């Protein structure tokens, strides 16, 4: 199955994607994790995106589209993938559609984690204070506000894009981790049966 998890920063996409990896053998493809790995390794790509990410802006579409194009055709995605953090704007969603049709693949579900923004800010502040090795460079109040604004401007229309295609399902992202996981599981089971 091929799945997209949508939701603002701190909505729990990464946590849920990791659970689905274990439960369903799907591969999590987190553009945020991949970009952070590139920064940690000091690659040319990492140096190019470091400042952009630290201030909470989106990196250029061609960068993430290129990364995803390569990853979705890799062997470890044979059972399917969970996109986490991609697509983040409508242009990326359109690029994904083109890649999928070229590969003869389809999306089984796009799951939006519905959240309350005020609670999110608390979650991310908590994550920033607990992360081993110090907080993520973009887990500070300023960058977070920027990431939420970018989400509302650029990523919220992605939900509308998939809603109009009839593949969007919304799950209550404010429930506890297990409940959210169970609800996502139900959505995926229904999608598989369809
Ligand atoms: P968040 O916790 O904000 O959802 P992510 O780990 O998904 O964070 O992404 C962190 C940062 O990496 C983003 O703020 C952005 O700068 C960059 N990034 C990740 N995915 C994309 C993407 N698909 N398009 C553009 N930028 C991206």
Topology:
Blueprint: E1 2-6, H1 13-24, E2 27-30, H2 31-41, H3 44-54, H4 61-72, E3 81-84, H5 90-103, E4 109-114, H6 117-130, H7 141-164, E5 168-172, H8 177-193
Parallel strand pairs: 1-3, 1-4, 2-3, 4-5
Helix pairs in contact: 1-8, 2-3, 4-5
The structure holds adenosine-5'-diphosphate.
Adenosine-5'-diphosphate (ADP) binds near residues 59, 64 and 88.
What key attributes describe this structure?
single chain, alpha/beta, 8 helices, globular, binds adenosine-5'-diphosphate
Give the total of domains.
1
Gap between N and C termini: 12 Å
In CATH terms, the superfamily is P-loop containing nucleotide triphosphate hydrolases
Name the bound molecules: adenosine-5'-diphosphate
Structural class of the helices, strands and pairings? alpha/beta
Q: What order do the strands of the largest sheet run in, or round the barrel if closed? A: 2-3-1-4-5
Give the helix level as a range of percent.
55-70%
The helix count comes to: 8
CATH class category: Alpha Beta
Low-confidence stretches: none
CATH architecture, by name, is: 3-Layer(aba) Sandwich
Overall pLDDT score: 93
- Proportion in β-strands: 5-15%
Query: Sheet with the most strands?
Result: 5 strands, parallel
Rg over CA atoms: 16 Å
The number of strands is 5
What is the string of SSEs from the N terminus onward? EHEHHHEHEHHEH
- CATH topology annotation: Rossmann fold
């Amino acid at each position: 199955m091929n799945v997209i998890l949508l939701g603002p920063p701190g909505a729990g996409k990464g946590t849920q994607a990791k659970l689905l990896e274990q439960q369903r053998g799907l591969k999590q493809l987190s553009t945020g994790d991949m970009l952070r790995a590139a920064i940690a390794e000091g690659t040319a790509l990492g140096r190019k995106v470091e400042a952009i990410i630290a201030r909470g802006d989106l990196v250029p579409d061609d960068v993430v589209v290129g990364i995803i194009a390569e990853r979705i055709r890799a062997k470890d995605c044979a059972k399917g993938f969970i996109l986490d953090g991609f697509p983040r704007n409508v242009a990326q969603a359109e690029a994904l559609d083109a890649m999928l049709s070229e590969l003869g693949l389809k999306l089984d579900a796009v799951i939006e984690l519905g959240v309350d923004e005020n609670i999110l800010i608390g979650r991310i502040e908590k994550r920033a204070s607990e992360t081993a090795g110090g907080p993520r460079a973009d887990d500070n109040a300023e960058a977070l506000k920027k990431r939420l604004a970018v989400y509302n401007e650029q990523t919220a229309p992605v939900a509308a894009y998939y809603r109009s295609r009839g593949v969007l399902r919304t799950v209550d992202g404010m429930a506890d981790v297990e409940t959210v996981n169970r609800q996502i599981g139900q959505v995926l089971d229904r999608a598989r049966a369809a």
